[in-house]
Specification:
The protein is of the alpha/beta class. It is built from 8 helices and 12 strands.
């Protein structure tokens, strides 16, 4: 793999680099946020290991900017024990997972392997599925282009918002708990992070609903979770 390590602690960066290089991977390093973002946007990496606290641009801002791009790269965030809120924000913005400092290299490697196992499962599933266009009322979801339009107007959604919306739209009228959505869409089941689902649904509603207070697409099932309304969905193979 080609890995970018954005970490201002030279000792930590060196330990990570030594381990992965011994395994035959290629590494690049950045010791501040601006340089890290420049490298991440200029080159193609298989993985970015991103420290949360950095001089200049912090890890949250870097993650946010990278997730605005159409190309996807896995991001493993490094955080401190005292930054619970930042970890939550990192996961909501689009980090794939996190490791809390201090950590062992074995723990870091286990997290990396878990990320790529999840990606392989998603890719295998996508290869088995025909690209389709999902119609839900006046909403059109194009799975190949990963685009969403309502009444012919493009709706800008993040990568994770699209994945969440697509999961709902492919399973109309099925009720999902927050834990199930975490597992299916995010690929992890950390207890206590269910509010990540809530915040993504709230943002989605603000983009796709005429009146987010009275949604017609993503419906709350009180005491259980959420479901996608079946608006005479039609699926047409592309």
């Amino acid at each position: 793999m080609k890995i970018l390590v954005i970490e201002d602690d030279a000792d930590i960066a060196s330990n990570i680099g030594q381990y992965f290089e011994d395994k035959g991977h290629q590494l690049d390093f950045a010791f501040n946020g601006a340089h890290g973002l420049a490298l991440a946007t200029a080159e193609r990496f298989d993985l970015i290991i991103l420290d949360l606290m950095l001089p200049g641009l912090d890890g949250l801002e870097i993650c946010k900017r990278l997730r605005r791009k159409s190309s996807y790269v896995p991001i493993l965030m490094l955080t401190s024990k005292s930054s619970e809120l930042d970890r939550v924000l990192g996961l909501e913005i689009g980090a794939d997972d996190y490791v809390t400092k201090p950590f062992s290299i074995m723990e870091l490697m286990a997290r990396v392997k878990a990320i790529f196992r999840r990606i392989e499962k998603i890719q295998d599933k996508e290869q088995d599925e025909t690209y389709d266009v999902i119609h839900a009322g006046d909403m059109i979801i194009n799975t190949e282009k990963r685009s969403v339009t309502i009444n012919g107007s493009m709706v800008e959604v993040t990568s994770k918002e699209f994945d969440l919306l697509l999961h709902f739209a492919r399973n109309p009228e099925r009720v999902f708990t927050r834990s199930q959505l975490l597992d299916k869409v995010w690929g992890y089941g950390h207890e206590g992070y269910e509010h990540t689902v809530n915040s993504h649904i709230n943002r989605l509603r603000s983009k796709i609903e005429d009146n987010p207070a009275k949604p017609r697409f993503i419906i709350t099932v009180w005491g259980v979770g959420y479901k996608f309304a079946d608006l005479k969905k039609q699926v047409t193979d592309v």
